[in-house]
Amino acid sequence: MRSMSFAALLLLSACAPAPQAEVTMARSVDDSLTGPALPAMQAFAPMPGQAVQRANSEIAADFLDLEFRMESGRALPVLTRFEGPITVRLTGDVPNTASGDLARVIGRFRAEAGIDVSAVPSGDASITIEFVPRAALRRVVPSATCFVVPNVASLAEYRALRGTPAVDWANLTTRNRAAIFVPADTNPQEVRDCLHEELAQAMGPLNDLFRLQDSVFNDDNFNTVLTGFDMLILRAHYSPELRSGLNEAEVAARLPALLARLNPQGEGLAGNPKTLSPRSWIDAVQAALGSAGSDDQRRAASERMLAIARAQGWTDNRLGFSHFAVARNNVTSNLPYAIEHFSEAGRIFRSLPGGQMHAAHVDMQLGALSLAAGEYGKAIAFADRAIPVVQQGQNAALLATLLIIRSEALSAAGRPDEARQARLDSLGWARYGFGSDAQIRAHMSEIAALAQRGQRG
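The structure corresponding to this sequence follows.
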């Protein structure tokens, strides 16, 4: 299940102007934003995930926790997978971009994970992806952007079977069919992100782990496309050494030799297997970054996150994420404290193999804050450091945001030609990342308001 993204919620929300600041643009808007339509949508070319940079002993522990536990904490008795070729079909009100993004991710599954999977235009399929209105999905699972269910082929069928053993993953001994439900009325990037994560979970592990900085199997959703780590996990899941019905001990016994074969560079590296996150920390995450509660309650919850992370002795992604949450919740009440924690989060993320996308999100926040403070050189530097990482990570919404921050900073610094080019570069990515022209213009206006604050001092 892909939760409503903490990463998406954090985009600029932490950097929004204080209540007294204006949110509309005082300066004239250039014609790149006022014409009848914005430039054509940009799309990323297929790109393989980066090589995994961690020890096989650590990856083995991650594999077991992904495979034999669910996001709710329930244990799964056996490994399950599709035994044989897998077919995928799109149904419902399919968005224009979905078929192309499905073809690209299927190509990656075949090339990088060695899975025999293909799309079919009609008829029965192993995995049905149904596009339905967001409101219909929220009535079924309010907290989810998209989700996957076993043994059904439509949302109507799931409604009829909901709460029965037929749709309980823990009752499976093998996988025969599944359905993924995706909002039809959303932006192209969210559609693609759902295809990546939900297809991976329909075929492979069902769990998400906050400790994984290099994976989409993580409910912080900073990574939006499948990574090299994810493809390694899926390749192991479908390796000939494993099969449906094996229990955790049987899989654990096979993993050392299996990972040595699939990931020889991970042999001999010093590993640091991580413990599962306690429920108290996960509850604090939900309280700190969810929409419920007051600002004071969210700030208190983020401090609980950090206190638990420190008490657990964590030095991994969860410690960085805890600092990030503290920073996010203190921007409007204690800006120096927020910057201190953003900076510490970035330091931690950059120290972790595969943590670059998390660090790029921090740089976006710091870049926006620098823009609002009139520190244009810093804003440009933060954007310039993050942009190549985000291009590699294929996050169009974040890339567009960074380019807009860069454009506003360049304009304020008296470099209009470079500013206009950065703005034009941002627009095609914004079409993919945010969707409608109105949403793009609103997002750009928010960032322009930050620049106005910087110019006012």
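The CA atoms of residues 55 and 269 lie 5 Å apart.
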